[in-house]
Write a structure and sequence with these properties.
- There is one protein chain.
- The chain has 5 helices and 83 strands.
- Strand 70 and strand 71 form a beta hairpin.
- The longest helix has 19 residues.
- The N terminus is likely disordered.
Length: about 1050
């Protein structure tokens, strides 16, 4: 190519003077379209020395080139404006190297640029081949591009390794000649869809570099000057490379920048960049070469350490990126060196890497030994490498080996970070993220990898001010922050190893690895069968922080018996440590945290626990914990904060312990489920769980023999033990007998039948509460108005408040209110001046009840807060009454009542349930008034009226389930009696009607105790005060001739204490037809 250019230069020597004159003319002076004329071999050289001015238009064409053709279009220094290239379809089968559309000496500072249509190149050559290439800020923009390139190199042994085939090449390359003038500028190639198919063979010593896209900076004379290459693909990229030294996308430069790669270097240079704005597929296949040297192949390589174009690289991916190097000879997915940046974090981005080596490699040595040495390799130490992915899926076959350093083993890790990578940040987001380690590798391995014999290592690092230090044994430990967010997952283990100093591991320098998992991300622990030192189930890191629902899953193997060690500190800010297998009901998983633990913001531990009857009181493994087994969280260090422990039942229900355990005579406990060896305060781990019976189990703790603390499930509610002054002698005390812990729902289930019966009694009540004083029918209008009574209609509202404390442990606080209305359809007189009222009534009543348990416990300790939940009962009642009055005032009141009941339960543990039932009541009440003073009809008089009443009630409620346990409240019966008296004053009102005022005093007694309520396997009942007293006042007065208003208020209290305490009242109206 050079000889051909020299001949053309001599031939046009006489035009040089004219060229010099015209060189001062601005680019706008060449605005006219000048069509370029092809050479005999079909090639173009716009901007050459003659003719002048330069042509600026290559028309669309289909071209075939052969023989010694070396390019299709090559731009030269006299191109001072935009070159337009029409749609081109070029087939070149040439003897040597070849360039499709390339820039040789044109300069962007002179106004040169290239705009092309759709381009197709099919090239077969023997040397350096380049599809599209530019530099010196000469930007190239094309439409769709197809590059089918084949380099069959036979011209030499490629001993230097410099023979290369590039699909797209841009930036200050080795032969660009660029100097500092172009620092701070890009040389950009922009395409729509880009298809690259490249095959490279040949090279007896070194295989041909087969590179799809190369963006470079600072390679000329290795001075770090010149424009930065930039490639922008706005459409889809489809790349397939075949060859044993293939790199899909290679970006490096800006060697003076050791900080943020997006910033300019100390000389003003920029970092080269590749931007993929849509989907991209990169596939690397092994070739047929048999070169002496074996090289790595990578889907993407960012950064370079060795000579020419060293420095960082930047790649942005805004679509779906797929990299497949599983069929490469020695392959890797993405390799990053220096302070490079890989950014595929866009919300529309995804990255899939399939490889036989590392899916992501940070650092490591470069492709060649330093300065041609066969034993000294330059490791790529750096600061600030950043790789960010959205919806990343990484897998590796783990069969690739280092082709240059023998004996280092296969590359089985998914992500490898070599030593010297300071402040490395790895970021993963997206619900579809899936990082699955090879069965013989780690998800992430941070260590000094190369330990083969007979090799020395050369490390690049930096001092505190960023000055590069070069020399052997300048080793640093890497510092890596791994961030993963959203509902993706990673499966396997992580590891950090010691830094290697020449051939030995230096224990004074250790890497740092911190994991931050958040927003539902899951880490599934899975063994590394080839882990060093046989630690197949150990993950090694500094701190793992799980936040906002992120999960560390220690039960990934659904068969159970998972036993993993997290060697590092664990911080859970609303995270989950999971020991619950996918199909549950495995009780032998163990997770050990060989470090400290801290929990907050709703942190939790999920596990499976089995507890069968009868159990025992043991709370250590040594003591037995009979008939119980459980997953275990074991913390070697300290623990603080608060974390809830949630047992998961065999059907997946949360906070339910499997098994047939029930409350028996002795209080029973499980084996430990959380063990803390270091300093730990009681209450760091808390938990409440249901059983299928009445009992609730709670997580309690005690100090262990080693000074730590053990947490276990217990049914025992222990009282708070007051501290004892150790100075004063203490008399021995009897051991405290624990009380069983009941589920907060249980008081409601046990006491609701009592509530229902009390509501039935409240609806019925006594005759005077229900109807007022009906003797006025005989007294009004001088005693004869009742003769004409045809019937009576009445209505009342009632309400009450009643507190009852059971004799065993349960209590309730009930507010009742209702409305009742009736009609006496028959009012009859007999010949002895007596009368009878027969009628019906309808009533609606509501009871709202707060339930309590005086032994309610928290963490196995009796709490001051006794509230357990509430209940609501609605009763719809129909009654029939038949009341007899004799002329002397004696009465007999007979009542029958039927009620339909609806119960709703709501415990403080958010368990809700409901059931229905019915109640039947029969009541007989009798009274006889006696005059205290003589009086005539219509005159004011006082009377005393002894009374007695007997009420029988039958209650039947439906069986039901609350989702955990079955409840049968059985049939309940009550027999309640009353004796007492009423003192009344009757006085004349206007129209000969009567005012009545009275006081009452009664003693009530329940003759029957409640029956048991069956809750799962347990039968429970509560007994209440059976005898109590009652006092009250009543009043009745007329509102009109046939209309009365009546009211009654009473207070009741049990004898000998406040086991029963309440008050009630009623207000009614009645009207009599005459």
């Amino acid at each position: 190519m050079k000889n051909k250019i020299d001949k053309k230069l001599k031939k046009n020597f006489r035009l040089l003077l004219l060229t010099s004159i015209l060189s001062g003319v601005s680019a706008t002076g060449f605005a006219a379209t000048i069509t370029c004329t092809p050479e005999a071999d079909g090639s173009y050289m716009p901007g050459d020395y003659a003719p002048l001015p330069s042509c600026n238009n290559v028309v669309a064409a289909t071209v075939t080139q052969s023989g010694n053709a070396e390019w299709y279009i090559m731009t030269r220094s006299r191109l001072h404006e935009t070159l337009y290239v029409g749609d081109s379809n070029v087939t070149a089968n040439v003897n040597g190297g070849y360039g499709g559309i390339v820039n040789q000496y044109a300069y962007g500072l002179s106004g040169a640029a290239i705009i092309a249509g759709n381009l197709t190149f099919k090239v077969t050559g023997n040397g350096n081949i380049n599809g599209l290439g530019t530099h010196s800020n000469v930007n190239m923009t094309t439409k769709n591009v197809i590059l089918n390139l084949t380099d069959n190199y036979t011209a030499g042994s490629n001993n230097s390794g410099y023979v290369a085939q590039y699909g797209v090449l841009t930036g200050s390359t080795v032969d660009s000649g660029e100097r500092a003038t172009y620092n701070g500028q890009y040389s950009t190639i922009t395409t729509e869809n880009l298809t690259i198919n490249q095959t490279a063979t040949g090279g007896m010593v070194n295989p041909i570099l087969n590179n799809g896209i190369r963006a470079i900076q600072g390679a000329y004379q290795n001075l770090g000057n010149g424009s930065a290459g930039q490639v922008i693909v706005n459409g889809n990229l489809d790349m397939t490379l075949t060859g044993n030294r293939s790199i899909g996308i290679y970006v490096s430069g800006n060697q003076s920048n050791h900080g943020d790669a997006t910033a300019a270097g100390s000389n003003g240079a920029l970092t080269p960049k590749v931007i993929l704005n849509n989907d991209a597929t990169i596939t690397i296949n092994k070739g047929t070469d048999s070169s002496f040297s074996v090289w790595d192949s990578h889907g993407i390589k960012l950064g370079k350490v060795r000579y020419a174009g060293e420095g960082a690289g930047i790649l942005e991916s805004h679509g779906n990126l797929k990299i497949d190097t599983t069929n490469a000879l020695q392959g890797g997915g993405i390799k990053m060196m220096r302070n490079s940046i890989f950014d595929a974090s866009d919300s529309k981005s995804s990255t899939e890497v399939k490889t036989n080596g590392y899916a992501l490699e940070i650092g490591g040595h470069d492709d060649q030994a330093r300065n041609g040495s066969t034993t000294t390799f330059e490791q790529a130490a750096s600061h600030g490498v950043s790789a960010s992915f959205n919806n990343a899926v990484f897998t590796t076959m783990g069969t690739s080996v280092d082709p240059l350093i023998k004996g280092t083993g296969t590359r089985r890790d998914l992500i490898f970070v070599d030593q010297g990578q300071v402040d490395t940040k790895l970021n993963f987001t997206g619900a579809n993220t899936n990082l699955t380690a090879n069965a013989n590798g780690y998800i992430l391995n941070v260590s000094g990898n190369y330990t083969a014999l007979n090799y020395s290592y050369y490390s690049n690092t930096y001092d505190a001010s960023g000055v590069e230090l070069q020399g052997q044994n300048l080793f640093q430990g890497s510092s890596v922050t791994f961030n993963a967010s959203d509902a993706g997952s990673m499966t396997g283990l992580v590891y950090k190893g010691l830094v290697k100093n020449t051939q030995t591991l230096d224990s004074s320098k250790t890497p740092m690895l911190n994991l931050n998992l958040s927003n539902g991300f899951t880490w599934n622990l899975n063994a590394n069968a080839s882990a060093p030192n046989g630690d197949k189930t150990t993950a090694l890191f500094d701190t793992a922080t799980i936040s906002n629902g992120a999960v560390i899953n220690g039960a990934f193997d659904d068969a159970g018996n998972n036993n993993y060690i997290l060697s590092g500190n664990v911080v859970s800010n609303g995270g989950v440590i999971n020991l619950d297998n996918a199909t549950h009901a495995k009780y032998n998983d163990v997770l050990t945290i060989n470090g400290n633990y801290s929990g907050s913001k709703g942190a939790s531990v999920r596990m499976n626990t089995l507890w069968n009857a009868p159990g025992d009181a043991a709370i250590t493994v040594a003591e037995g914990g009979a008939d119980s087994e459980s997953d275990v969280l074991h913390i070697i260090g300290t623990a603080d904060g608060q974390t809830s422990v949630n047992p998961i039942a065999a059907d997946g229900t949360v906070n339910v312990i499997d098994g047939s355990v029930q409350q028996i005579a002795s209080i029973i406990n499980t084996v430990p489920v959380v063990v803390v060896d270091g300093a730990n305060a009681a209450g760091t781990f808390v938990g409440v769980a249901k059983t299928t019976g009445a009992t609730e189990v709670q997580l309690a703790s005690r100090e262990a023999a080693n000074g730590g603390r053990e947490y276990y499930w217990t049914m025992a509610a222990m009282p708070i033990v007051d501290p004892v002054d150790p100075i004063d002698p203490v008399d021995p005390v009897d051991p405290v007998t624990p009380t069983p812990i009941y589920n907060p729902s249980v008081p409601g289930y046990v006491e609701t039948p009592r509530v229902d019966m009390e509501l039935g009694y409240a609806t019925l009540r006594t005759l005077h509460e229900r109807r007022g004083e009906n003797q006025t029918l005989a007294w009004d209008e001088c005693g004869d108005c009742g003769l004409e009574a045809k019937g009576q209609v009445w209505a009342r509202i009632f309400g009450s408040h009643l507190e009852q404390d059971g004799k065993t442990r349960f209590g309730m606080d009930t507010d009742t209110y209702g409305i009742q209305a009736g009609y006496d359809f028959a009012v009859k007189r007999n010949d002895k001046d007596g009368h009878r009222l027969t009628g019906l009534y309808f009533a609606y009543g509501r009871a709202n009840t707060d339930f309590s348990d005086k032994y309610r416990a928290v963490n196995g300790i009796i709490s001051d807060d006794k509230y357990t939940g509430n209940g609501k009962t609605d009763a719809y009642s129909l009654g029939i009454t038949n009341t007899y009055y004799k002329s002397n005032g004696t009465y007999l009141d007979l009542v029958g009542q039927a009620s339909f009941l609806q119960n709703k339960y709501d415990s403080r543990s958010n368990v809700t349930a409901n059931n229905n039932g019915f109640g039947l009541i029969l009541s007989a009440e009798v009274g006889r008034p006696y005059a205290i003073n003589d009086h005539t009809p219509g005159e004011t008089g006082w009377l005393i009226e002894p009374q007695a009443q007997l009420i029988y009630q039958y209650l039947k409620l439906d069986k039901f389930s609350d989702g955990t346990r079955n409840i049968d409240q059985n049939s309940q019966s009550g027999l309640r009696g009353r004796i007492g008296f009423r003192i009344a004053r009757n006085s004349e009102a206007k129209n000969y009607q009567t005012n009545t005022f009275y006081g009452v005093a009664n003693v009530w007694h329940d003759f029957l105790n409640p029956k048991e309520v069956n809750i799962g396997q347990d039968g429970l009942k509560e007994t209440y005060a059976s005898t109590w007293g009652e006092i009250g006042l009543g009043i009745q007065f007329p509102l009109a001739k046939e209309l009365y208003l009546y009211s009654d208020a009473r207070y009741e209290r049990s004898f000998g204490g406040a086991d029963r305490d309440g008050y009630r009242g009623t207000l009614g109206l009645k009207y009599t037809w005459k």
